[in-house]
Amino acid sequence: MRKKLVIGNWKMHGNLQQNEALLSAILRDIDGLAVGVAVCVPFPYLQQTANLLSGSVVAWGAQTLSEHPSGAYTGEVSASMLRDFGCRYVLVGHSERRALFGETDAAVAAKFRSAQVNGLVPVLCVGETLAERDAGRTLEVVRAQVNAVINLLGVEALASAVVAYEPVWAIGTGVTASPAQAQEVHAAIRDHIAGANCNVAQALPILYGGSVKAQNAAALFACKDIDGGLIGGAALVAEDFVAVCRAAA
Ligand code: PGA
After folding, report:
1. Who contacts 41 (Cβ-Cβ below 8 Å, separation ≥6)?
2. pLDDT tens digit string along 23-43?
3. Residue 135: which domain range?
4. What single-letter DSSP state applies at residue 1?
5. In CATH, what number is assigned to the domain containing residue 176?
6. Which residues are catalytic?
7. Which one of 20, 67, 102, 171 has the fewest CB atoms closer than 10 angstroms to its CB?
């Protein structure tokens, strides 16, 4: 059985004081829950997060990274730098990175590779826009996003990775995919990967993201192929985030 995993994505939120209060409250209330928990924080707060979480059950990571190991890439942050701060996870290809910062499938796959080469677990975010869903293209779109990684690195690369299905129309909108809608896509992703390697597909954690909150988390996490969540808004309030983690436990 796959263990459930809940990852908070803070996006561009927080400050030193708020982060300390949030992480302390999470640590206080999360203890003993049978669920993997992590937070992906903005780069400047990685040291603070490492200080507060090291030795705890909560892992941490970043929200993106450079595909390059080092060099003249002003403003970029490499995978080895993230390792220096104890990151376990890094999001790659979040829909906001794809839509607002022009990240292509090829760039996302290169970032995925860079993360793995440096011992990080990439969390590959995939998902369709509303227009793509309305056009009946959901499965085609998410398969292509997964294929970009498989074509570059082989299906075995997914043996030490996480996939997050996040329909773009559900992110930050308050509209969640229904459990049936999400399960359908999760199962399709798993089937698609199973076509190349059954064991990798069975072991792969596939998280759902998009307006997950305490009220809808349990029904989503009860679905066969939904292995936890990638949580945005609800990750910024300790009691909401802990309630989502409880729903997964
Ligand atoms: P949301 O964000 O939970 O606020 O919809 C999810 C995400 O973007 O990862």
Report:
1. 10, 14, 19, 49, 60, 61, 62, 63
2. 999 999 998 899 999 999 999
3. 5-248
4. -
5. 3.20.20.70
6. 94, 166
7. 102
Across 113-152, b (16+ Cβ under 10 Å) vs e yields: bbbbebebbbbbbbbbbeebbeeeebbebbbebbbbbbee
| Averaged pLDDT for residues 192-199 | 98
Q: How many distinct helices (H) and strands (E) make up the chain?
A: 11, 8
Out of 169, 171, 207, 216, give the residue to mutate to test ligand 1, the one with the largest number of ligand atoms within 8 Å of its CB.
171
Span 225-248, average pLDDT? 98
- Which pLDDT score is estimated for 200? 98
CB neighbours (10 Å) of residue 60? 26
Dump pLDDT digits (tens) for 77-89.
999 999 999 999 9
The answer to whether residue 1 scores a pLDDT higher than 90 is no
- 91 alpha carbon to ligand 1 midpoint, in Å? 12
- N-term to C-term CA, the chain: 13
| Lookup: tokens for 1 | 């059985």
Distance between Cα 145 and ligand 1 center (Å): 19
Q: How far apart are CA 180 and CA 96, in angstroms?
A: 25
pTM value > 0.90: yes
Ligand 1 close to Cβ of residue 132 (< 6 A):
no
- How many domains would you assign to the chain? 1
For residue 184, is pLDDT > 90?
yes
Q: What is the pLDDT of residue 169?
A: 96
